[in-house]
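User: I'm putting together notes for a lab meeting next week and I want to include a structural view of one of the chains we've been expressing. I don't have a solved structure, so I'd like a prediction I can at least talk through. The sequence is below, exactly as it appears in our construct file.
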Amino acid sequence: MAQQKTILRALAGETLPTPPIWMMRQAGRYLPEYKATRAQAGDFLSLCYNPELAAEVTLQPIRRYGFDAAILFADILLLPQALGADLWFVTGEGPRLSTITTADELAKLKPTEAIHDTLNPIYETVKILSKELPDETTLIGFAGSPWTVATYMIAGQGTPDQGPAHALKAENRAVFEGLLERITEGTIEYLSMQIDAGAECVKLFDSWAGSLQGDDFINYSIKPMQQITAALKAKHPGVPVIAFPRGAGTSYAGVHAATGADCVAVDDGVDAAWVAAHVQKDGCVQGNLKSSHMVTGGDALVSETRRICDALSSGPHIFNLGHGITPDADPENVQLMIDTVRGS
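Assistant: Thanks for the context. Below is the predicted structure for the 344-residue chain, given as structure tokens.
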């Protein structure tokens, strides 16, 4: 059955008459059923670490919309917490972490093999999903890519320009690179365990890759993704990897070869026709409707969805947004997008 799943067929390089579809953050705050389950859990981290409830919110958009894939409900900052960073969420403001900016703080992180003590509930969620998802639905595991995770661990929170991480890179390259190495090792372990638990492919989210330029983009976004991809493929031959260096612009060209990923996800900052010419020629691509269309809907959503599908119709393509759906999205617009992709 696995070989018949449309997402896996696209990831293997097959051009399908109708692109398979899923949506980043498809289990989230735009859905009333998610809000109800989140309230039941009490807070965001409690939801992430409750396998039954995390599986429930992962399944909700599959039941409602019939997406071709479900992505594990978790958060990229669970790995820093598993490595020993303090993590908490401030209502209305987002995550906060204890910072890693010195050699002493780096040395106090837990050994890689200890992360599973914290992350075992996530693997339990994957096991539940692998049993409960419909036979035709692909289960995607994920992690944050090392550069993006490092920006949070260095700053202690999200920042508009990742300035603290860039500053540490300039001022103490040894600590900066040491932290990236620890995150890379942990990510390999984390994703490998997700695959062992039942994830059928995995995605690396480098949400802040666009703030890296030149050699830094290669060294701190691309190379860690390549290292993770190579290690996972050595352990789990045949399990596809999706790489998402968001904000890469023209540097999306060549990412398949540079990372070894089976699919490159692209944001909405690049045109789909350009993607077809410069990225899709190397393999499967995923993207790239603007998330704002899920808020505004209407004819513009329909025409832009059709335009992207047409532009990418000559090669392997997984339809998705260019970034995660936002909490103010209208669930009816999601259905309109799916109906447009599927031609109904």
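A couple of points you could mention at the meeting. The chain has a mean pLDDT of 97. The beta strands are 69-71, 87-90, 94-97, 138-144, 201-206, 241-245, 263-265, 284-289, 317-321.

User: Perfect, that's what I needed.
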